Structure formats: structure tokens, C-alpha cells
Amino acid sequence: MIIDPKHLIQLTEIFDCGSFTVAAERLNTSQPALSRMASALEAELGAPLFASRRNPVTPTPLGTELANHGRSIRASTDQISQLANRVASGEQGELRIGAPPFHSQRVASGFIASWLERHPDIRINLQNDYAPSLLTRLVEGELDLIMAPVDVIEGNPNLTVERLTRGENVIVCRAGHPAAFRETHHARDVVQGALDHPCPRQPAQS
């Protein structure tokens, strides 16, 4: 016998509220629908779940045991929803950064360490490689952000390049990453935009 976890959550809500009507309001359903669910669950189990259906609703020992399982399921569901919201908002996730060895030692490691102190739930995956390989991996969606010499970037048919500085090295964000849509006039804003949105995994676009 397999019991629908949703029904256990509904049963828990009924007992916690002490009322079918109040539980229905909280669950955004109707009182008759909850009553039918409860009756069907009792028929399936072949045992009563309610010592009384009058307010306040009271459970039988079996009803109490099932409600305890329902609370565990509800708590896990809430935690999963919170995690999904944090990932979607950029508060938790992974940012994949590629940089040549020199940049990793002199530049990337410094600002990453500082940034992680303020955002401990973000995991940063810093990968060392040479610029041509990093560029290929960025275009193919294997990396979210790279540091590379500008002469490697300009002229690449897979990228649209707009210079923000006159430096020899640039920071490149893959197509489709939220940082690419941020209005900015400073390279540091591009970095911050990428760090603020570490989660997306879409393939790079031409």
C-alpha cells in the first residue's frame, strides 16, 4: 500500500488546526474535499483516523502517528522550497570561474576570498587553464566567467565584444548569464553581477 504524501500533509493540517474548515482555508482547498480525502484514507487503511470529527477534531492513535509522518514530510517540503528560492535568487549555488594561472594567483583568489566571507553559501569553482581553452569552455557552457587577454577574445565569431576598459585583460561572462543583462559601465560591476547570480546552467549562446 502506498499513501500519497500530500494526503498525510493534509491530515496533519486538519489535526493541527483542529478543524476541517480552517485546514481547508490554509491549504487553499474546500472542506468537502478534505472530508472526502480523510474518509478515503480511512477506507484504504481499514481503520479510523478520527476519534471525533467535531471541532476540535481529535485523532485516534493511528491518526496521530500518521500526522507525525506528515509533519516530517511538510518540514522537508518547506526546506526544499527555501533551497529552491535561495538558488533562484542567487543566494546559494555554484559559480564556475576560469582564469590563467597568473590571474588565479594574483587577482581571482583575492577577490574570491573576500567575497566568500560575505556569501558563505556560494560555492566557487576556480579552474586554471590557458585563455584559448577557457574561451572554448565558456562558449560551450562549461564555465560562467573567465579572465583572459583581450586579443584572445576580440575577433571570436561566438562572442559580441564591447570594451569597458583599455586594459590588456578582460572579464568575459557567458551568453545567457544574468550578469550579461545588467546595465553597467564598469568592469567591476560585471564581476559583481556574475557573483550575484551563480546558479544558471544554460549553454552558451552565439
Please tell me the total number of domains. Answer: 2
Within the largest sheet, what's the order of strands? 4-3-5-6
The first-level CATH class name of the largest domain: Alpha Beta
* Oligomeric state of the chains present here: single chain
Q: Tell me what the CATH architecture of the largest domain is.
A: 3-Layer(aba) Sandwich
Total count of strands: 6
β-strand percent reads 5-15%
Please estimate the helix content.
40-55%
Straight-line distance between termini: 52 Å
Q: What's the CATH topology name of the largest domain?
A: D-Maltodextrin-Binding Protein, domain 2
Low-confidence stretches: 197-206
User: What is the CA-atom radius of gyration, in angstroms?
Assistant: 27 Å
Number of helical elements: 8
Describe the largest sheet. Answer: 4 strands, mixed
Structure explained in plain terms:
It is a single chain. This protein is α/β, with parallel strands linked by helices and 206 residues long. The chain has two domains: 5-87, Arc Repressor Mutant, subunit A; 94-196, 3-Layer(aba) Sandwich (D-Maltodextrin-Binding Protein, domain 2). It has eight helices and six strands; from the N terminus they run αααββαβαβαβαβα. It has helices at residues 5-17, 20-27, 31-45, 61-89, 101-118, 131-139, 150-153, 187-196, and strands spanning 50-52, 58-59, 93-99, 122-128, 145-149, 169-173. Residues 197-206 have low confidence and may be disordered.
